[in-house]
Each structure stands twice: as structure tokens, then as C-alpha cells.
Design brief:
By secondary structure, the protein is mainly alpha-helical. Helix content is 79%, strand content 0%.
Length: 224
Amino acid sequence: MANVRVYGGGAGKSRSSSGEGSPLMAGLLVGFVLMIAWILLARMTGKDVGLASWGVGGLIGIAIAKTAKPPTRATGVLAAILTACMLLVSKVAVVVFALQPVLREEVLRDPGTTSLLVLADMTKNRSFSPELQRTIDSRPDLLRDTSFLGPGDELQFQMISEAEERAKTATPEQRERLVRAHYDETFLAKLGFWVLLLMSFGPLDLLWMGLGISTAWKLGQGVI
């Protein structure tokens, strides 16, 4: 008697399982898309927009619940953990790709900041007018004098005046060079990132992050 082979049962089961998406991958995909949107929003507004944290958590929770069959408490925990991780990564990305470039552009446009950068450059390169530079070189004690209307007040006023005059005639290329030499390599490289990152974790920002994580936990379980 010939053996009878039955086809289709295993294949149907395989198709069914392959049709089910991964909740983790769905959450990651939604999280990265939202992170890019958050960066663009911060770039346009020049602000961190902490309210976005709540939306990120909600949409990640919905994506995981829709993909899970069925959503459970475990998928809620997954949504909460994934949201917390994505919010931290997004905060760093927003600072690096949005807030730092915006701050740099403001420095380039601000006359007062340009004058300070010119002053730092002229002091470093000893490029004041010959007479003023000779006074600076021969009287370093005057530079150290910080008293109000003290002996060094007039010298410092002359230095600032020359820097302001030179800043007024600076070309865009010269401004860019000054920012790159005295701002990018000092403030942004050493201090600016951490200052902006800490500012993005204010009390209200932490509130939105908490709401985002809790919302992800609820929606990730299919609770609406």
C-alpha cells in the first residue's frame, strides 16, 4: 500500500507565523522614525520640545500592542523599557544634531559674541595695534587688574574697542574661522554638549518623559 503524504498543514502554520510581526522591531522602527521627526522639530524651533516624549511613548506602545498577538503585560513592560531607551537616545541626538547647530548659528549672527571671539583671537595672536600691543606686552599686570575703574580699566577698554571695530568689518568667512577656532574647539567640544543635555532634563521634561513611559506601558498591554 503506497504511503500517503499530506501537504499544506505545516506550510499554513509557517505562513501564519511569518505573518506575525515582531513587537520589538515594530517598536524600534516607530521609535527611530519619531526620533528623526523630533530632531527636525527641534531644528526648526530651536527648542527641545519635551512634550514630544509623551507622544513617543504613546506611539511606541500602540505599535507594540498592534504587532503583538495578543498584547500582554510583558509587551507593556517591553514598550515601557523601549520608550525609556529611545527617549534617552533621542535626547542625545536632539542636542547633537539640532540644538548645538542652532546655538552655533546664533553665535555666528550675534555681534556681541563675535566681538568676544575677535578679542580672544587678537589676544592669542598678539594682533592689536602696535602701540597697544607694546603696552600689553610691557604691562601684564594691567591685564590682571580686575578692579572697577582700576589701573587696567583703560587698557582693557582699548582692547575691547579695537576688537569691536574689527568685528564690525569681519567677513562671513572670518566669522566662521573664529567660531571654529574659539567656539567649536572649546565650548561646544568640552562644555556645550553637557550643558545642553542637562538643560533638556528639566522638571517639566522629566514629567513628559514619565508620562511617555507610563503611557507606553499601558498602551503596550492593549489598554486604552
